[in-house]
Amino acid sequence: MSQMKTIYLKDYKKPEFKINSCELHFDLFEEFTTVINIMSINKLEKSENDIRLDAMDLELIEIYLNDLKLNDTRYIIGEDSLTILNVPESFSLKIKNKIYPQNNTELEGLYKSGSIFCTQNEPEGFRRITPYLDRPDVMSVFTTTVIAQKDKYPILLSNGNKQNCHDFMNGRHGTTWHDPHPKPSYLFALVAGDLGCVNDEYTTASGEHVELNIYCDKGNESQCSHAMKSLKESMAWDEEKYGREYDLEIYNIVAVDSFNMGAMENKGLNIFNSHYVLADEDRATDANFMGIQSVIAHEYFHNWTGNRITCRDWFQLTLKEGLTVFRDQSFSADLNSREVQRIEDVKGLRDRQFVEDASPTAHPIQPNSYMSINNFYTSTVYEKGAEIIRMIHTLLGEENYRKATDLYFDTFDGQAVRTDDFLWAMSKASRIDLTEFETWYHQSGTPTLKVEESFHNGIYKLTLTQRVPNAVDGSVQKPYYFPLKIGLIGLTGKEILERVLIVSKEKEEFVFEGLNSKPYLSINRDFSAPVKIQQSTKEYAFLMKHDKNSFVRYESAQSFATETLEEMMESGNIDEEFLEAYGYILNLDIELSYKALLLELPSVSTLMQRQDVVDFVPIYLAKDRLERELAALYKDKLQELYKQNHKPKNKKLDAISMGQRAIKNRVLRILSALENREVIDMAREQYKESLTMTDRVVALDILENITSEEGEVALNDFYNRYKDDTLVMNKYFAILAASHRNGTLERVIVLENDEVYDEKVPNLVRSLIGVFARNYKHFHAIDGRGYSFVAHKIIEIDKINPQMASGLASAFKIYERLNNENKELMKKELDRVLAVPSLSKNVYEIISKILK
Ligand code: PHE
Ligand code: ZN
């Protein structure tokens, strides 16, 4: 199958042609769209005589070369290309073709989301619009005219600044946009629709006025204010922290319901999944609000890290994504609670990236091969990529880091570059040699750091040994170079020192002299390096009490809980000391959202990652039992905390109000382990009286999981209240799909026929099927029906939207490490998927790697 070809970084070749300008005309109709693409092209040195353009599923109408119409002996139409034979040094090429956005269910290229025309071109969608050199290192100046029926599509948008508008006699109208900044085709965007709009403005540090617009379905305008506020905060932050200003007269954001990912940074015209734009307290949770703030920032920050400086090829994806995630994480930390932000980021990394890194689909943040580049928008490229930038930031220090990013922007503005170019700027400006550090870009898997301590005659010795796992192909990998932030704490809890150690060898010793007694070690403060720590000393309770580093305190609580659960799984015994330490946290007077995190028990994913052979049943049994134990033991204190912080009529979004909701909902969840009348009443009351969605979803989730009757009443109420709001209905589907109650799979199957559910809308598929595939209890049920159901869906959805199908397939990444019984059941289903003749390369790549 030619489609299943593997692409290698080592085969990269420079483009042979340059596209100086690209003028596009779109004529949008209900049945089809015609595209006219006029390019001015130059041969670069030593070029071929033929130009091979990328083209996918295009219906060609005509081609003109320097105004002469070409007959079909002058070009060849290939499976995914259009080759024009024998072209001169410099020429203009005009191509007219036809596409069918109405039938586009893959949501790549030009498609319809409801009644809105929109585009998604990263990474390779543009070739589904018009023939082009669809690769990020070909940058061109775009001028775009969009023509459509005026009453149905009054709003016509593209990249850059608006040039002019025309009304035509036949009820159609057109708008022309010009983007002065050369850009690769993946950043091209177009939108047409009858949209509502919220308008604002921003003045840059150098006094330029920028018009800000957020477009959405009519009626949703009032839900855009948080996104707008976040946009302005992002613009100011990037000026202050990186010295980067916005560079066009307009910044447009459009919210659409059908979108494969979170959002897209198209130049001057971001297109967003409406999930990351629309919010009010009645419909969105606090977590949703935070998510909007960070994704708005992420896309805005791409304007410099991604758009002005882009990637040479898709193997360099982390150049823009790792860096931009690091930037949005820093932004969120600056605007909210730094300690909570760091913990949440690390939690996300461990739950998703560590799992991926331990699977057969593990890859370096800069991969060296792929079948489908769509499969590489991974937590490794994004979140681990961000950790790598964070380490550079730690190694350089704030001041040098800023100098280095300035140098990066000065040197590479307007270019398509490599991660090596970024590293060059980092080390050039700081004079810090990063040669050894580069390993992080080329190796996969999470290293483990073994820690040994000794103390004699006032000398404390720390011995660190790195264990680096082999690559997926079995090859041996090198030890890493990284900053390890540690603290030493005295017996009374007083901090002795804090230091950033540079670890670079497989085995290394660090010596600290002049100490009175053996200190307590606080290791990997702030999670300075993305490694696993393996320690034999158990000083968790002490560190939970005395460490001034909020991350290590959290970490100690987590490790203590993890080991307590593991001991329960082994011997059935519950460590009294842990129960005591938990009580200690309950009584601490600390920031409430941080406290809520300290009280959370480790995720099933955390525990599963530590098992050699994964068996989910003992994990959730132990977790359930420990929760019940804690709830019973601390019932009074928990109730008291709940009462103190339950403010049902408060829907404010300030840190204190959100902290109160975080803690009281954490407490309610712990209490719900008791499954008694009292808790049911509390949850039911909370569902009824609270004004926030944050409170309502927690209450609903608890009711659904402990009592079918009460759950049903509340869920019906929710359904009737929100059935016309698809975005909110995602929460409904997700709660039911995640339920631990018996019969969940049956209910999921029934919900597929619900009138609100639509298999073509990625958000809904993720909420129902995606969430079910992460429901450990029911997905991994030993009757095998969970696996079979999801496999069946993958096959079905692959025909509609391969990217969405391969996303679902990632639930099977655990395969290799499962116990025999589950493994056998899963294998049957994976074989079945792989045997489908017309499988997309997206799904093929994931499943074939899992089975290898
Ligand atoms: N570039 C987008 C982002 O990270 C992600 C994306 C990739 C969106 C591919 C759509 C398709 O912000
Ligand atoms: Zn991004």
Automatic annotation (TrEMBL):
<dbReference type="InterPro" id="IPR012779">
    <property type="entry name" value="Peptidase_M1_pepN"/>
</dbReference>
<dbReference type="InterPro" id="IPR037144">
    <property type="entry name" value="Peptidase_M1_pepN_C_sf"/>
</dbReference>
<dbReference type="InterPro" id="IPR035414">
    <property type="entry name" value="Peptidase_M1_pepN_Ig-like"/>
</dbReference>
<dbReference type="GO" id="GO:0006508">
    <property type="term" value="P:proteolysis"/>
</dbReference>
<dbReference type="InterPro" id="IPR038438">
    <property type="entry name" value="PepN_Ig-like_sf"/>
</dbReference>
<feature type="domain" description="Peptidase M1 membrane alanine aminopeptidase">
    <location>
        <begin position="227"/>
        <end position="440"/>
    </location>
</feature>
<dbReference type="InterPro" id="IPR045357">
    <property type="entry name" value="Aminopeptidase_N-like_N"/>
</dbReference>
<keyword id="KW-0479">Metal-binding</keyword>
<comment type="similarity">
    <text>Belongs to the peptidase M1 family.</text>
</comment>
<dbReference type="InterPro" id="IPR001930">
    <property type="entry name" value="Peptidase_M1"/>
</dbReference>
<keyword id="KW-0482">Metalloprotease</keyword>
<feature type="domain" description="Peptidase M1 alanyl aminopeptidase Ig-like fold">
    <location>
        <begin position="445"/>
        <end position="535"/>
    </location>
</feature>
<keyword id="KW-0378">Hydrolase</keyword>
<keyword id="KW-0645">Protease</keyword>
<dbReference type="GO" id="GO:0016285">
    <property type="term" value="F:alanyl aminopeptidase activity"/>
</dbReference>
<feature type="domain" description="Peptidase M1 alanyl aminopeptidase C-terminal">
    <location>
        <begin position="538"/>
        <end position="852"/>
    </location>
</feature>
<feature type="domain" description="Aminopeptidase N-like N-terminal">
    <location>
        <begin position="44"/>
        <end position="187"/>
    </location>
</feature>
<dbReference type="GO" id="GO:0008237">
    <property type="term" value="F:metallopeptidase activity"/>
</dbReference>
<protein>
    <recommendedName>
        <fullName>Aminopeptidase N</fullName>
        <ecNumber>3.4.11.2</ecNumber>
    </recommendedName>
</protein>
<dbReference type="Pfam" id="PF17432">
    <property type="entry name" value="DUF3458_C"/>
</dbReference>
<dbReference type="Pfam" id="PF01433">
    <property type="entry name" value="Peptidase_M1"/>
</dbReference>
<dbReference type="Pfam" id="PF11940">
    <property type="entry name" value="DUF3458"/>
</dbReference>
<dbReference type="InterPro" id="IPR014782">
    <property type="entry name" value="Peptidase_M1_dom"/>
</dbReference>
<dbReference type="Pfam" id="PF17900">
    <property type="entry name" value="Peptidase_M1_N"/>
</dbReference>
<keyword id="KW-0031">Aminopeptidase</keyword>
<keyword id="KW-0862">Zinc</keyword>
<dbReference type="GO" id="GO:0008270">
    <property type="term" value="F:zinc ion binding"/>
</dbReference>
<dbReference type="InterPro" id="IPR027268">
    <property type="entry name" value="Peptidase_M4/M1_CTD_sf"/>
</dbReference>
<dbReference type="InterPro" id="IPR042097">
    <property type="entry name" value="Aminopeptidase_N-like_N_sf"/>
</dbReference>
<dbReference type="InterPro" id="IPR024601">
    <property type="entry name" value="Peptidase_M1_pepN_C"/>
</dbReference>
